């Protein structure tokens, strides 16, 4: 590199000091403003320092006087300089503007093998179909589509979902009974706040079950009470709360569907007691051995809130979820959504509606189902060679629960040491106890096909016996 | 149309009744399931009704017996039928599944002339640039980009904003100090909850000021205390609360920028008392007579939260907002965001980052500024012919406040009668009083150029005198 011996232009301050101003390229007024701003902020121009007259500074810098006057006015308007008619322009007294720069707080430690449950293969995201749908949506968008949206959600998406959920999940609903949210995480928070406002104090959730959602419910002011889970799914006969959050199609994490007798029992409970069933159909699209069992909601549509999202089909990044609610809950749930964040962004809603109505969504789900079915078969072949590990649940979803006599903490440590990310069973229990068998939730969604094969080899090494 | 005299196929039920099943097209098993499901739901197959044996029904319908068996199994798994080995299949006893269909609750009454303040021209949305940016974002997306996001926001967008806000608004920040939200509405809710958690009981807001945000703050558990506004902006000497929400660049609704002396006074207040300034820079990009005055945040970066969004530039439908916060607030604000809805959707964040880094965003803002400047000139020309209406504020933003001796309710009624949507001043006061002059907030953003000309003609007729 060649050194540059010519310093930046220096201006002579009234107090006799030289000030070096780095006049960058671009408009001269903006350049002078930035140079003066920097000089004030880094202290080279201290409080009360007198600046040259506009005439003097213009001469020194070879600028038009109007340029210097405009720059002084701008900085005065911002509060950095003081200009008084007939008096010299001075630097204002300001509190220190020094602000430490903190590094971005993003970076989670990278994992080599992602076997976390419930995350779909991002490499299979239908980018072409999504882009084509976005193009069509933008092409026919009306000006008001970029204005304020509907807290209940775009009618186009609610109509598309009402048809699609009825067709593929047997849900009995209508566009007017669907509320669009920014994902299930927000959905359960909204429902908990509505229940709380209606006087409920408790919400029953499956034990074991999703821990994060217990935290959301608790934050909303409801006490979480456990519903035990056995080989037939949730013990619905033990529900004492006025509302219950369940995963009837594919219990999380055990992977068993709710037994038909229990489905009927649950419907009777809801109608007998006026209780509310919140059905989390988190991966109901993915049944690998038969057509998916229809949603429970159809057995008690006026006592059930059906919850879905794109998180297992297209990916959680989209933050698009939906609720099919009984007529009497449409208004309170919509108002809770409006209070939370006004409404969900519009373009994503219209793009998803376009994917559904053009059947690109169903095609994507079918292809994903075949992919995950193959992977589950590979996983279970591997598990068959590790007799200490017992897989549970029906062929469905994006994960398999295995229980084992081996201590769970040591297992998780071994997996981590092999660069494998997965989940332990213990944290999913309401009250983790030592006497229960430990377990692992092994996902087969999050990777690419190739990455999954590598992950299985790593798992094979990580699992003892 | 030709009439069809052939009814749907009828099956003979064991109890001797005929049941007409509408076997739709498509897979026969699915068709039979749907037909039976419908018959159960509409009551043609009542509780305990015995179904034919699989052999008998297969023969009656000319289907393979396996098809009928599979259909019975599916409906049994869903809880609609009861199948017991050695006994006839019967319809389960279910609570009534009748669910009234409520109409969608979308439709706000259409307005012919949209002069609401603070809404940009949706017909000018840069659809081509947005689509091109989306294409590039999807083309280089990694699989994990469709997985879970960062509660603080995508680093790409935070980095793009840190540069853009510093360049165009003089904001002193870094990617690590920016938090992405789903719009200012959510932003102020998050900040209010953080202040509440830190023991604050009050938040000062401008009087007059945005009413909706007072409601959000109140819901978060803070008492809202007024800061009077005069011709120099907010009377910062009257702040008693530990935190204050202000619009320094362009006071809403009066349209005056905060006087330089008051900016310095505000900075001193923040450092003297440890108070927090929340700067709502809602339309700081739009100054029509000069370069925008820099953000207040630069005078007290360690005591100010700077808030922005795309709502006035690209439109509120995107639900994309951002906060530039002091280092000590990065974690609590990020955690509040995570509790609220986990994180903001990823694709919109990456697309906006692409728009900013390719300068398409700045180009769009410049073009919009010229458009709104022309419209403001037309509006003020019209107002000059209505001496009873006094415009206020500097040439900036997307609206002008006019005050008038005419009673405000009658004016709003006249405007509504002419199909004009705009806002009254009274509702923006903390405590609406009769002795104050009424006023109108007239927006010049929401329409197309052509629509704005028509709206002005309607306004000319609607305004008395």
Search tags:
four-stranded antiparallel sheet, Arc Repressor Mutant, subunit A, 37% helix, 18 strands, eight-stranded mixed sheet, homodimer, elongated, 3 domains, disordered N terminus, alpha/beta, 13 helices
Secondary structure blueprint with pairings:
Two copies of one chain form a homodimer.
Chain A (H helix, E strand, L loop, with lengths): L9 E3 L5 E3 L7 H14 L12 H8 L3 H13 L3 E2 L7 E2 L21 E2 L12 H14 L14 H15 L8 E4 L2 H14 L4 E6 L3 H9 L3 E8 L2 E2 L8 E4 L13 H14 L2 E5 L23 E6 L11 E4 L5 H12 L4 H12 L2 H24 L6 E3 L6 E6 L3 H10 L2 E2 L1 E2 L13 E6 L5 H14 L3
Parallel strand pairs in A: 5-16, 7-8, 7-10, 10-11, 11-12
Antiparallel strand pairs in A: 1-2, 3-4, 6-13, 8-9, 12-13, 14-15, 15-18, 17-18
Helix pairs in contact in A: 1-3, 2-3, 4-10, 5-10, 6-7, 6-9, 11-13
């Amino acid at each position: 590199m060649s050194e540059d011996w010519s310093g930046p232009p220096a201006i002579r301050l009234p107090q006799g000091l030289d000030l070096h101003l780095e006049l960058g390229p671009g408009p001269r007024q903006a350049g002078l403003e930035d140079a003066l701003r920097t000089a004030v902020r880094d202290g080279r121009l201290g409080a009360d320092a007198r600046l040259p007259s506009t005439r003097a500074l213009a001469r020194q810098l070879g600028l038009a006087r109007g340029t210097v006057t405009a720059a002084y006015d701008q900085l005065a308007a911002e509060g950095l300089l003081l200009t008084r008619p007939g008096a010299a322009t001075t630097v204002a007294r300001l509190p220190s503007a020094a602000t430490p720069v903190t590094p971005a707080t993003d970076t989670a430690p990278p994992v080599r093998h992602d076997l976390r449950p419930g995350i779909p293969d991002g490499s299979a995201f239908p980018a072409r179909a999504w882009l084509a749908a976005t193009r069509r949506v933008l092409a026919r968008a009306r000006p008001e589509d970029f204005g304020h949206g509907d807290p209940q959600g775009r009618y186009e998406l609610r109509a598309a979902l009402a048809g699609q959920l009825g067709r593929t999940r047997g849900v009995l609903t209508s566009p007017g009974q669907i509320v669009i949210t920014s994902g299930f995480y927000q959905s359960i928070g909204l429902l908990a706040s509505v229940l709380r406002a209606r006087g409920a104090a408790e919400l029953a959730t499956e034990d074991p079950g999703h821990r994060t959602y217990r935290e959301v419910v608790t934050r909303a002011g409801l006490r979480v009470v456990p519903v035990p889970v056995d080989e037939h799914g949730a013990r619905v006969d033990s529900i004492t709360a006025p509302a219950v959050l369940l995963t009837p199609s594919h219990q999380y994490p055990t992977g068993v569907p709710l037994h038909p007798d229990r489905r009927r029992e649950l419907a009777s409970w809801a109608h007998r007691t006026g209780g509310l069933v919140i059905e989390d159909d988190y991966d109901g699209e993915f049944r690998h051995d038969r057509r998916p069992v229809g949603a429970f909601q159809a057995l008690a549509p006026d006592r059930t809130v059906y919850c879905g999202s794109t998180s297992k089909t297209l990916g959680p990044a989209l933050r698009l979820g939906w609720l099919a609610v009984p007529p009497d809950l449409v208004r309170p749930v919509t108002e809770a959504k409006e209070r939370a964040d006004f409404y969900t962004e519009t373009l994503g809603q219209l793009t998803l509606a376009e994917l559904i109505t053009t059947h690109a969504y169903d095609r994507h789900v079918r292809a994903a189902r075949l992919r995950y079915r193959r992977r589950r078969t590979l996983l279970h072949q591997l598990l068959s060679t590790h007799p200490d590990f017992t897989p549970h649940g029906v062929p469905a979803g994006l994960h398999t629960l295995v229980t084992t006599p081996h201590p769970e903490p040591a297992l998780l440590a071994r997996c981590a040491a092999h660069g494998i990310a997965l989940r332990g069973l213990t944290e999913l229990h309401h009250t983790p106890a030592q006497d229960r068998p430990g377990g692992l939730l092994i996902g087969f969604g999050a990777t690419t096909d190739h990455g999954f094969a590598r992950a299985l080899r790593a798992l094979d090494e990580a699992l003892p016996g």
